[in-house]
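Board notes (copied after class):
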Amino acid sequence: MFKRAVASSSRAASASLFSRSYVTAPKIKQTRLLIGGQWIDSESGQKFQTINPSTEQPLADIAQASAKDVEKAVAAARHAFDKGPWATTSGYERSRLLNRLANLIEQHAEELAGLEAIDNGKAFTVARDVDVAMTVQCFRYYAGWADKINGKTIPIASNKFFSYTRREPIGVAAQIIPWNFPLLMAAWKLAPCLASGSVSILKPAEQTPLSALRLGELIHEAGFPAGVVNILPGFGDAGAALAAHPKVDKVAFTGSTEVGHLIMRAAADSNLKRVTLELGGKSPNIIFPDADVTAAIQGAHFGVFFNHGQVCTAGSRVFVQKKIYPEFVEKSTQLAKARKLGDPLHVETEQGPQVSQEQFDRILGYIESGKKEGARLTTGGSRVGSKGYFIQPTVFADCKDNMKIVREEIFGPVMSIMPFEEVDEIIARANDTEYGLAAGVWTKDIGKAHYVASKLKAGTVWVNCFNVYDSAQPFGGFKQSGLGRELGSEGLDNYLETKTVTVQL
């Protein structure tokens, strides 16, 4: 994701980091709920353990939010939005607070990256150079929008009236984020919400609560009023209570398509609250013979194995034209074999463990199905070591479109390679999926690139690159990959309502 977007911001940090070979794990500073500006235990007193996926050992006991805590958070958020100082905070002041938060995140970059490494398992250097750097960029981008939210005047048929629109904050937003990019997904949700003047109840994934809780401390340090951001670590019951709450005006969710369906039903049955969903994907990556084949092989490798394959846009269906298919398979296999797997706190590690036992078992199950259904395993396919959720980078060749590993989202380090012959054939095959999040096209023929991009049913199409993001670019999916868009001006629209005012002159 992303290496082009953040390269310039990480050079200085890299220079100092690589004088070391190993990073010390940061101290865990916060484990409680944030409600109304106070760090408190849950109503039930229940806690859950967050596990280090490298060692399978507990990291901390985290306060577990329930429906009762949701009630308290909604009350705090409603007060902050309806009656508190946030209701009269100017766009200029919101911009200043968001920029101050971005500066604090940047100052604590290595600490936050270390929390992601021990809680999620991602390589420290990736967490610092991608997750934290793009989190900073996201908050700064929306800080620039906060004082530029404008309505417009509208000439209407009768000149006896003056008509104009106002863009007003939507209110209380429930924001439910996944475990694959914990800090960055919090930024994608919080930054446009706060820029708009809305308030948030953020529920981090139970697998990875640590960076969101530390972010909550930085939000307090930046000076945001109490109740503007509330953070509820917990399980699905807390998320369900938020989605169904009648005093929540908006729910934003990133996660599985299955849960996305449940959230839409709950929103419809409660108060018809606004919903945006960023869901699953099974992205095609199409390589034509006139491409820069070396770049395409490297790009396809990055498209699948980045973040251990735990990326919703992962280009895990790799379609290669027959003319270059043997070379592509051989060199992709070599790249996968050379990938550095190990402790995420070691600076040379490229791939750490999968996030959890559940995900580890799920991925190995898919690998077994690939073997049974006749795909040709060229490398990987097994766990590494006896401790930690480490899985070898895995490549399957000669896959068929109807195989389970080709049809379903694996969310792990598994590449499926398939040959094709003609342009229109591969467009039909690429679109033959319930998902439509992203796609890649590799060719030097600009006409072909634009033609294929126009035919692919996907919210993002990368040409001669993959996983390139920026906070200014709208992101979201077609079909069952989601509803609405995040980032860019479209991401801000999710947290605004349009009001029309007409005055008789």
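Comment from the instructor: Residues 385 and 391 are 9 Å apart (CA to CA). Residues 284-470 form a domain with the Aldehyde Dehydrogenase; Chain A, domain 2 fold (CATH 3.40.309.10).
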